[in-house]
Specification:
Elements lengths: L1 H9 L4 H30 L7 H31 L4 H11 L11 H21 L1 H4 L5 H22 L5 H10 L1 H14 L5 H19 L11
Helix pairs in contact: 1-10, 2-3, 2-10, 3-5, 3-7, 4-10, 5-7, 7-9, 7-10, 9-10
Amino acid sequence: MLTDIARSFGALGDRRVRGVLWRGITLALATLIALGFGVEASVDLLGTTGYSWIDRGIDVLGVLGTAVVAWLLFPSIVVALSSFFLERVVDVTEARFYPGLPPARLVPLAEQAWAALRLLGLSLLLNLAALPLYLVPVLNLPIWLLINGWLVGREYVELVALRRMRPAAVAELRRERRIRLWAAGALVAFLLTVPLLNLAAPVLGAAFMTHRLHRLGVARPESRAA
């Protein structure tokens, strides 16, 4: 795994990957701003109560709500939205480290959009359901990593594996290697919580998961997509 991590960071030296990185940074910042405005607008809809101390309390809760929502949903939202151009990172990584592979299947835009919407829906549902547990000290981070590691890992598996495997084979791979794939997803999800590093995390995650999945044989002949 350490070799794959080092290679993923090394990918940032490629001009094509850096191009994707800058688009990812723009998208990440736009996502944070949109989340902030969304929560602020929701608070504003509540109006004022006429009691200054209550209104100040609502404002404080709004700020806290913005931080909580951003922390909970940022990883899945950024990964889902980034998936539309992260395929470029997978192409570069495969060309450099896995030459001789047959051409990858072109994943239709509609299929990518459905996968992104599904991830967003699952992220919202699972994180909101787990919100009470996130308030419990000590348990909150492990539970968050458990949920978001699965969500992020699932998205990256589909991003990389569906290019070279049949959907049924991808589903089987997720079942058989669920612990390894969750661990890889949890690592990427953790990177998405580290200030500054989280801006590059989607690109690093795409390169990292490409290496992890090729170690699991996503391009073996019997699993290639028709």
